[in-house]
Amino acid sequence: MEALLEQIESYRQEMSSYQVANAENLEAFRIKFLGTKGIVKNVMAEMKNVPSERKKEFGQILNAFKIFAEERFETLKESLTSTSQQTYPDIDWSLPGDPIPVGTRHPLSIVRNQMASIFKRLGFAIAEGPEMEDDWHNFTALNLPENHPARDMQDTFYLNQNPDYLLRTHTSSVQARIMEKQKPPIRIICPGRVYRNETISARAHCFFHQLEGLYVDEHVSFADLKQTLYFFVQEMFGKDVKLRFRPSYFPFTEPSAEMDISCTVCGGHGCSLCKYTGWVEILGCGMVHPKMLDNFNIDSNKFTGFAFGMGVERICQLKFRVNDLRLYSQNDVRFLRQFTGAV
Fold this sequence. Notes:
Blueprint: H1 2-17, H2 23-34, H3 39-45, H4 55-84, H5 107-121, E1 125-126, E2 132-134, H6 135-138, E3 158-160, E4 165-167, H7 172-181, E5 186-195, E6 207-217, H8 222-237, E7 243-250, E8 253-262, E9 279-288, H9 290-295, E10 304-311, H10 312-320, H11 333-336
Parallel strand pairs: 1-5
Antiparallel strand pairs: 2-4, 3-4, 5-6, 6-10, 7-8, 8-9, 9-10
C-alpha cells in the first residue's frame, strides 16, 4: 500500500508541473489523467486491493486525488482561456468604420411593387393563386376552347393529363378562382410567375412574370378601363407619356384591345426599341366576356367588368433599359448591383 501512496504523490507532482500552451495540450491532460482509461480511473481501481481495515483511510486519499486532478484540469482550462483572449492595440475610435455591403431588391420586385402600389391607390386588392393549375381554371373557365393553340403541349408545360394539370400560362387563373368564391364587386390585381414552353433567348423565356387586373361591378364601362390604365401609365412613366388603344382579340374579353405607349427611350421619334414606330406595346385589355361571367354564376345582364394584363419584364425593360430577359434569372451580382439605389 505504501507503493500506491508514493505513486499517487508522483502523479500529483506531475499534474502540478503540467503546463498547456494550446487546446491540444489541455485535451492530452484530460485524456491522460481523467479519461476513461486514464490514471485517476486506474488508481481508483486499486481500492479493491486495499485491506478492509484500511479502506476508509485509502478511500479518503483516493477521493482527494480525484478532486485534485479535476481542479487542476479546470485551472489549466481557465489559464488557457485567459491567455488565448486577443489583446487589441489602442484603437482610434474617430476613424470611419468598415463599409457594409447594402443589398437591394431584384429589379423585377422593384417594378412589381411600384405597379402594385399604383393600383392599390385605386382600390385594387392583391390576389394570389397556385402556380400549378387545373384545366378548368387556366383554360375552360376563361372561354378558351379545347382546340385553342395555348392548350398545345408545345406551348404549355403539362404535369399530368386526364385530368389535366399544368404550370399556369397566365395569372388569369387567379381571377377565375376569385370569381368562383367572391361575388361582385370585385377589384383585384394578380401578380405572379407564369410558365410557357418557349425557347430561351434575349426576348423570350420559359417563365416570366405578369400582373393582371380585374374589376367587376354594376355599370363598369370601357371608359373606366381607359381611365384606370391612363392613370397607371402617367404614374409609372410620367405625365408626358401618350397612349393609344388598338382593336385586338382575346377569348375572355369582348371588345378587346392592345394598349401602346409612346416610347420612353426616344420620346416617340423612333428607335430600335420601338422598331422606329414611336410606340411600344405594354398590355392587353378589354371588357370581360359575358360567357366568362356566366361560368361563375355572375349575372352578365346585371354586372360588367374589365380586365387587363401586362408583363412585369416589359415594364422593367422600359424603366431600366434591360434588353435581355435572361439577365433577370442569371443571378449575376454585377447586374443586380446596378439597382442598389432603386429600392
